[in-house]
Amino acid sequence: MTTIDTDVVIIGAGPVGLTLANLLGVRGHRAIVLEARDQLIDYPRGVGIDDEAIRTLCTAGLWEQIRPYTVPHHIARMVNGEGKVLAVNDPKSQEFGFPRKHGFIQPLVDKELAAGLARFPDTELRFGHKVIGLEDHDDHIAVTAERHTEDGAETVTITGRYAVGCEGGSSFTRKWMGVDFEGKSPSTRWVVVDVENDPIGTPSVYLGADPRRPYVSIGLPQGIRRWEFMLHDDEPTEKVNDPDFMRSLLKRHVPDPSALEIINQRTFTHHGRVATDFRKGRVFIAGDAAHLMPVWLGQGWNTGIRDATNLSWKLTAVLQGDADDALLDTYTAERRKHAADMIDVNMAAGSVMKMKPLGGWVRDRAASALNLVPKWKSYFTELRFKPMPRYVSGVVVDQATLTPGRARPSFKHGKLAPFIDSAGENSPVGLQFIQPRVNTASQANVLLDEVTGDWWTLATWGTNPTTYLTPDDLDLIRRHRINLISFMPETQRAWAEKRYADSPLPVTVAGDTSGALKDWFDVRACGLVILRPDRFVAAASLTQQASRTLVAVVKAGSLTRTGKA
Ligand SMILES: O=C(O)CCc1cccc(O)c1
After folding, report:
1. Is any atom of ligand 1 closer than 6 Å to the C-beta of 74?
2. Which of 95, 307, 379, 498 is least surrounded by Cβ atoms within 10 Å, i.e. has the fewest?
3. pLDDT value of position 410
4. Is 371 part of a structural domain of the chain?
């Protein structure tokens, strides 16, 4: 038996496990990924990457490698049985630095994620390792895997500080944790067909809410066309092996179904399930191991990447002694609710897709009426129906903590608000911060994350962020390597760079070339934000509240290194 030691053992080399391993590698940790298969899954599954996930891929240093396997602005249209468009999902904004939706080819992206691990001396991907045992000792975990060699089976034990199960819906790790996988698995089956040399050539996504047979038709990169067809309850699954049956499905979509170059055909069912807890002791689950959702908004892949993003910085903070173990409890608190909300929206979208003729008639009329109301129309077009992560508990600081006892003022744009309403609709706390392009003394026209880096940031609008910080605060900022940034109109940058040159700690002045940062601060009545390593807003306040806000974030994040015994 062989025993190996690492920091984090990751079970499963799907996109979530590989992304997590890359994020840990980028931050200098050791990680071993154990994969039961002998190679990565080579058939396409997910087809949509969103802007939040791209931000993570940039942090992992892999976006440039992955970009060639994507197509931007993947518009989705829901059409009825007559091909009439009922709803369009075509968000035009780019608040996080990239188009909101991209189509992609998952196996090629997974391959780049796997290749990315070669950059790190202490991360490793081990194929053919089937996990058969997991033990949580108080100060470490031990994962046992079985490996088949030419001489028979070998047992390998990997010890680490933490284990993360990313091995999909039938997760060994989740079962080991003994948590429930709540929700539903509707019995509806779908057959998916991918073909080369797209015989249609339309670039986007069509969700065919056709009462005769719901279908999906998607234009993907590299000339691939995907179709998905719902199987009726009285159609046995084996029917999809009958070429005549498949041709009958395809013939409504393409003139000559017999001439298609099929590269993949599979059947699947949708699930809407979420684990009751994503953590047990030193063991975590992420991605499909923690939640399964139908495909309708293309969010299964992205929701898993969000888990990896959230968990990776927290593991880093604890592994390098920056935070107590309590920080890791915020992983379930932050990620579970969002995954559950995403499942609900996807299950609802599935019900709309599968409506029978009478329900479909009502739906079509309702959709026509809703599209006449601009507010409702934008609900679809701007992706507002995709629940954005908003963390209300976890590493976030609410207004009551900053100004105890003070009644929450109501803030409306255009009125002076004395204190930010952190719990209100307009509060940025718990939301992802925007990512416009900025200029600094050393970087021109760069995305903001290149300036903030991938750790903590304390930023103010229009002032020097050190002004209201005490010597103790500055010490804390130094210990935690918190980046200090002053956002300025670009016209003010040269002045600020000169003026802030003697600051007690270095301050980067970021020139707001597009006005996006000014607009952001303008409607939120706060002058200071503390951004987490995943670029979510941990706290927002008036600039003069800097010290109190910092202390509150230290508490919410279970940060150590406070310098106080
Ligand atoms: O990214 C999108 O909007 C499409 C997601 C989708 C919808 C239906 C089936 C499927 O495989 C993906």
Report:
1. yes
2. 498
3. 43
4. no
Nearest C-alpha neighbor of 292 from the set 431, 380, 171, 388: 171
Question: Measuring from atom 4 of ligand 1, which residue has the nearest CA?
Answer: 298
For a ligand 1 pocket test, name from 88, 297, 351 the mutation site with the most ligand atoms within 8 angstroms of its C-beta: 297
Q: Are 528 and 549 in contact (CB under 8 A)?
A: yes
Ligand 1 center–CA 395 separation, angstroms: 32
Indicate if ipTM > 0.90. yes
Give residue 74 CA to ligand 1 midpoint distance, Å: 10
User: How far, in Å, is the centroid of ligand 1 from the Cα of 301?
Assistant: 11
Query: Which of these three, 294, 317, 336, is where a domain ends?
Result: 336
Confidence of residue 554 (pLDDT cuts 50, 70, 90): very high
Tens digit of each residue's pLDDT (9 = 90 or more) over 466-502: 999 999 999 999 999 999 999 999 999 999 999 999 9
Q: What is the domain range of residue 278?
A: 2-71+101-182+274-336
Quote the CA–CA distance of 24 and 160 in Å, as a whole number: 13
pLDDT tops 90 at residue 376:
no
**How many folded domains does the chain comprise?**
3
In a domain, 352, yes or no: no
Name the DSSP class of 110.
Answer: H
Mean pLDDT of the chain: 92
The Å distance, Cα 46 to ligand 1 centre, comes to 8
Among 365, 53, 349, smallest CA distance to 205 is for 349
Atom of ligand 1 at shortest range from CA of 205: 4
Helices (H) and strands (E) in the chain, counts: 16, 30
CB 444 within 8 A of CB 511: no
* CA nearest ligand 1 atom 8, residue: 296
- Angle, vertex CA 454, rays to CA 448 and CA 457, nearest 5: 70
**Is 510 part of a structural domain of the chain?**
yes
Same domain flag for 64 and 147: yes
Question: Which of 43-52, 389-398, 432-441, 521-530 has maximum average pLDDT?
Answer: 432-441
Residue 352, pLDDT > 90, answer: no
Contact 267, 231 (CB under 8 A): yes
Do the Cβ atoms of 500 and 486 come closer than 8 Å? yes
